[in-house]
Fold this protein.
Amino acid sequence: MDENNAPASLYAFADASTDFGRRHPQWSAVLTRLWQTINMAFTRRQMMSGPIDKFVYFYGNLVAEDFMELFLMAVNGYGFGAMKLLRSMYEHTIVLKYLHEHPEEFDNFFDFDRVQQRKLMYQVFDIFGRDALSPEAIAATESRFEEVKERFTIKSCGVKNCTCTHTRVNHTWSKLDFVAMAKQTGEIGKMLVNAYHVPLRHAHPTVRTMMERLEMHDGHLGFSREFQPKEADDALMTAHNCILVALQVQDEQFNIPGLKSAIENCVRDWALIWSPESLTELEAPIDPRSPT
């Protein structure tokens, strides 16, 4: 079939995306500038001299991809779906910023993969039996785990000054839990409720996941299959914030010419879409008589 005569795509929701355009008429221009800034940060000669540089660059790419995935859900009206993606995007953003500011902890983040791979191996054994993997693969996984095991071993009781001798392997690479880590990352850490706790209700099996989709119609309880524009906007607004943080990390790590000013324009664009009143304050002339 001639591609010029190909049928219209059936894989998007025109009503929802049209409604999104009505709610945010400036979005097309804003997304264009944001995409140009993302390209400036990531489509370039890789200025990487060590492991933390590589992590910041490639993990930043991951956050950018998270954003585009979430945007596709939000623009098509799947607000709760966007919320589910927001949870992981926010976690990626926090880890990116935290390790950018604490590069001395990068080895723990990287090497904890050996712990996770061993855990996965035993889950494979539980379902498929030990014969599912070759003896060589099992030995290699165990050997890699043993090389880092001591760094991730903690007391079973979890009490810091306890004298007990029982130990276990920690469930995470950091001595901080995620919430404590987020609180050390500045302003982005203040988004824990909107970006972490609220999306949890949709990412995990909870009664709230079901209840928020129920509606009464003609006296009968039913499941709502309507689009969720409010949730879509909430998720996209927060994700927009996350991608700006990821871009700022790239600028701080690599000092890319022109990126800082491009990010400043993107911050103004964020206000244009989500907080026009703050943009008015931002662009108001400074009165030289006002106190500093």
Observations:
- Residues 107-169 form one domain.
- Confidence is low (pLDDT under 50) at residues 281-292.
- Residues 17 and 232 are 11 Å apart (CA to CA).
